[in-house]
Amino acid sequence: MSEKIKKTEAEWREVLTEEQYHVTREKGTERPFTGGYHNNKEEGVYRCVGCGEKLFRSNTKFDSGSGWPSFWEPANYENITTEADKSLGMMRTEVLCRKCDAHLGHVFPDGPNPTGLRYCINSCALDFEKEENEE
């Protein structure tokens, strides 16, 4: 596992937009269907906006109808962590970047096979790196 990234609140504010900061550092959520990646169909890799860690691949992305990018599996389970989230009067499982502790979204047990999971992730918590097809 890569070394943990620790920054002060001021340092995070310097490198993240206001919305990115609210979502990743204050555990906010972007409005559904407003994020730049919920409808992205390009091939590539989704990385953490805070530290660049590889989080998800486009070949595990699916349209859940939720309004947020949804994936059935992370690129590497070692790059994320989860914890109980009891906010909003319900029990959910929060998904965080293991390297910088950025809040990414939540994971639910209603996804497609083969995992049956739906990683519901905020677009603004991600950077997308397009893969070029070599011919």
Mean pLDDT: 94
Give the oligomer, counting copies of the same chain as homo and different chains as hetero.
Answer: single chain
What is the terminal separation in angstroms? Answer: 33 Å
In spatial order, strands of the major sheet run 3-4-8-7-6-5
Number of helices: 2
Low-confidence stretches: none
How much of the sequence is in beta strands? 25-35%
Could you name the key traits of this structure?
single chain, about 140 residues, alpha+beta, about 10% helix
Structure, described:
It contains two helices and nine strands. It has helices spanning 9-15, 18-26; strands spanning 44-48, 54-57, 61-62, 70-71, 80-85, 92-97, 103-108, 118-121, 126-130. Strand 6 and strand 7 form a beta hairpin. The N and C termini lie far apart (33 Å).
